[in-house]
Amino acid sequence: MSETVERHEFGAEVGRLLDLVVHALYSEREIFLRELVANAADAVDRRRFEALTDPALTLPEAPKLRILPDKEARTLTISDAGIGMGKADLVEHLGTIARSGTLAFAKSLAEAPAADKPSLIGQFGVGFYSAFMVADRVEVTSRRAGTEEAWLWASEGRGDYTLAPAERAEAGTDIVLHMKGDAEEFLEPFRLQTIIRKWADHIAIPITVARDGQDEPANEGTALWRKAKSDVTEEQYAEFYRHVAHAFDTPWATLHWRAEGMLDFAALLFVPGMKPFQAVEGERESRVRLHVRRMFITEEAGLLPPWLRFVHGVVDTEDLPLNVSREMLQATPVLARIRKAVTGRVLSELKARAKEPEDYAKFWENFGPVLKEGIFEDAEHRKDIAVLLRFRSSAVEGWTSLADYVSRMKEGQEAIYVLSGDDAAALAASPQLEGFRAKSVEVLLLSDHIDAFWPDRLTEFEGKPVRSVTQGTVDLSKVAGGEAAGEAADVTALLALLKEALKDQVSEVRATGRLVDSAVVLAAPQYGPDLQMQRLLRRAGRETGGALPVLEVNPRHALIARLAANAAGDPLLGETAGLLLDLARVQDGDVPREPAAFARRVAAALALA
Q1: How many structural domains compose the chain?
Q2: Residue 326 annotated as binding?
Q3: For the chain, how many helices (H) and strands (E)?
Q4: 101 pLDDT exceeds 50?
Q5: CA dihedral 76, 47, 94, 107 (to 10 degrees)
Q6: Does the residue 418 lie in any domain?
Q7: What integer pLDDT is reported at residue 20 of this predicted model?
C-alpha cells in the first residue's frame, strides 16, 4: 500500500496559514464541529439534488450524519452518506486552502482582534481546516456517489498531505480526527450533543451521536422557515443565518414571511451585518437556497437579482415538483413570480429600514456599491433602487439621499449634479466644484467604481435630471449669488492658439465661468464618457472611443489674463499649452500623459520666473 501513497505539498504560504488557524482560534474551538457537520449536510443535499436526474445517486432510505467519539482510540469520526469526493475532488477541495486569497486571509487572521477571528474562518471558506484546532491528524475517506473507487486523504496540518486508495462500502465520507491531548472534552457525547444543538439544530438531516453503543438524536431537524415568527427566537434566527451564510456575524435584517394565494411559499432571508472578506463584487449570482416541500433543490435558482446577491436564506415552495430540473427552473413562470415577489419584499424591507439613517448607514457602507448595480442593469426596479441610494456630498456631513438633495436645491438650479472619482475626500477639494461652491450649489461625490457607469441610466429623479459636472457645459447663471470677482480678459485669440497647440489632445478649448481660484479645468464632451469613465477605460487599456477632453480656461485668472495679453507673440505658447493641460489633469487626480515632459516644462517655467 505504501507504494500507492501520494504525497502533496500545500505550499509554504498555506503551511503558515494552517499554523495561524491552529494557534489563533482557540477561543472558539467548538466551531470545528459546526463546520464539519455543515459540510456533511451540504454533501447530502447535493447528492439528493443530483439524484433527481441520475437515479444511480439515490440516497439511502434514511440518510443521517453520524458522530462517533472513541475515547480509547482518541478519535472522533463524522460520517455521512452524501455525494462524496473522488481523487480530483479531494485535491481541489482539501488540497487548496482559502482560494479567495491565502495571503490576504493569513494577514487578516494575524491582525484581527480575537472576537473577529471566528468570522474570518467562515468568510474565507477554510472551515474544514478548523479541525486542526483540536486534531493533530485528520483523515478523510471518501467515495464519490456513482463510483466504486474510494480515496484516503490525510494530513497532520504541517504543510503537506497524502492521498492513497481506500475502501468504503457505500458512497459518502468519513472524517476521522485524531484528537489532541487537550481536546478530550470533544470526545464526551454530552458535550458533542450540546454543540450540535447550539450550532446545527435547524439542519433537516438527522444527526446522531454514539453513546454507550447507541446512536442518540442530537438535533430536532426543524425547518425554521416553516415556523411562525412568534415561535422563533432571535438566537435561532442568528444561528440559522450563520449556517446558511457560512458566517459568524449577526444579521442586519431578518425577513421571515409566508405567501399564500396565487403563490404558496415560505421565505427566511437575511441581510448580513458585515461585509464579507470574500468580496460580493466577484461572484455575481444570488445564492438564496430553493427548497421544494422542505427538500433542498439548488442554490442556483437566481431567486434574487445579482444586485441583491448579498442576501442569504431559504425560499421553500409547494408550487414546484420535487423532480424539477435546472432547465425547468429557468422556464417555469412559477419561479419567475416567486422571484418578483421575493425581490419586492427585500426592497420593501430596505425602504423601511432606510427611515433610520444611522442604522441604514451600516448597511449602505457594506453593500451600497452592489445595490447601485441595479440602477445600471435593472430598468424595472430602477426607481425603487434610486430612493435607497446614499451619497457623500459637498454640502453636508455624512450620507444623504437624492430626495434630501432635491429638497436643498437652490432656486434656479436645474439639475442634480454629481462628480465621480476614486476618493470622496479628494473630490471634495476638486477644482471642478469651485463655481458650484461659490453659488452654494450642492454636488454629490461618487467614489465607488460602479459610479462611473450608473448615472447615465438614472436620467432623472423627481423630475430633476442627473448630470455630471465634468460633462458638457454647465450653466449656473440662473442660480443667484456667488458672481465671479474680477474682470474677464479677452481670451478669444488665446483659445484659438491653445486649440491649435493641443489639437491632438483635446476636442475643444473654451472659456468657463465655473472656476474661481484655478486657471484651468478639464471637462468631457456633452456626449460620450465623462472624465472618470475615460480614466477607467485608460487604466483597463481600452480606447475611449475618440472622446478627447475639453480644456476650460478661467478668463478672470491672472495667469490666463497674462497669457492672453501676450498670446500672439509668445514663442513658448506651445510649451505653456502642454503645461496647462497637464496641470488640469493633475488637479483631477490624473497623471500627466508624459511625466518627463511635464517635469521639463515646470522646470523651464520656474527658470523663466
Answers
A1: 3
A2: yes
A3: 19, 22
A4: no
A5: -100
A6: no
A7: 65
Which residues fall within 8 angstroms of residue 414, CB to CB, at 6 or more apart? Answer: 464, 465, 475, 478
CATH number at residue 312: 3.30.230.80
For residue 328, give every residue at least 6 positions away whose Cβ sits within 8 Å of its Cβ, in sequence order, or none.
none
Query: HEC string of 208-242?
Result: EEEECCEEEECCCCCCHHHCCHHHCCHHHHHHHHH
Please check whether residues 236 and 209 belong to one and the same domain: no
Per the annotation, does 85 bind a ligand?
Answer: yes
Burial (0-12, 13-18, 19+ Cβ within 10 Å), 595? exposed
Q: Is 182 annotated as a binding residue?
A: no
Where do we find the cell 429600514? 353
212: number of Cβ within 10 Å = 6
For residues 458 and 371, what is the distance between their CA atoms, to the nearest angstrom?
14
| Radius of gyration for the alpha carbons in the chain, expressed in angstroms and rounded | 31
Query: 39: annotated binding-site residue?
Result: yes
User: Is 100 part of any known ligand binding site?
Assistant: yes
Answer yes or no: are the C-beta atoms of 178 and 137 closer than 8 Å: yes
CATH code at position 505: 1.20.120.790
546 marked as binding residue? no
Which DSSP state fits 524? B
The C-alpha cell at 459 is: 436620467
* Cβ neighbours around 402 below 10 Å, total: 20
* 310 labelled binding-site residue: no
Alpha carbon 415 to its chain's center = 31
Check residue 547 and give its pLDDT.
73
Is 125 annotated as a binding-site member?
yes
Q: Which pLDDT does position 361 carry in this prediction? A: 96
For 81-106, the DSSP string reads -SS---HHHHHHHHSS--TT-HHHHH
Distance between CA atoms of 522 and 524, rounded to whole angstroms?
A: 7
Note down the domain range covering 110: 2-217
> What does the buried/exposed string (b/e) look like for 491-529 if buried means 16 or more CB atoms within 10 Å of the residue's CB?
beebbebbbebbeeebbebebbbbbbebbbbbbbbeebb
Task: Please give the helix or strand (H or E) that residue 142 lies within, else none.
Answer: strand 135-143
- Tell me if 35 is assigned to a ligand binding site: yes
262 annotated ligand binder: no
Task: For residue 588, give the nearest of 514, 512, 522 by alpha carbon.
Answer: 522
End-to-end distance of the chain based on CA atoms, in angstroms? 85
Chain-wide mean pLDDT for the chain? 85
Q: In angstroms, what CA-CA distances link 351 with 356, 385, 387, 393, 398? A: 10, 9, 8, 21, 19
Would you place residue 327 in the very low, low, confident or very high pLDDT band (cuts 50, 70, 90)?
A: low
Residue 470 identity: T
Whether 450 and 279 have beta carbons less than 8 Å apart is answered as: no
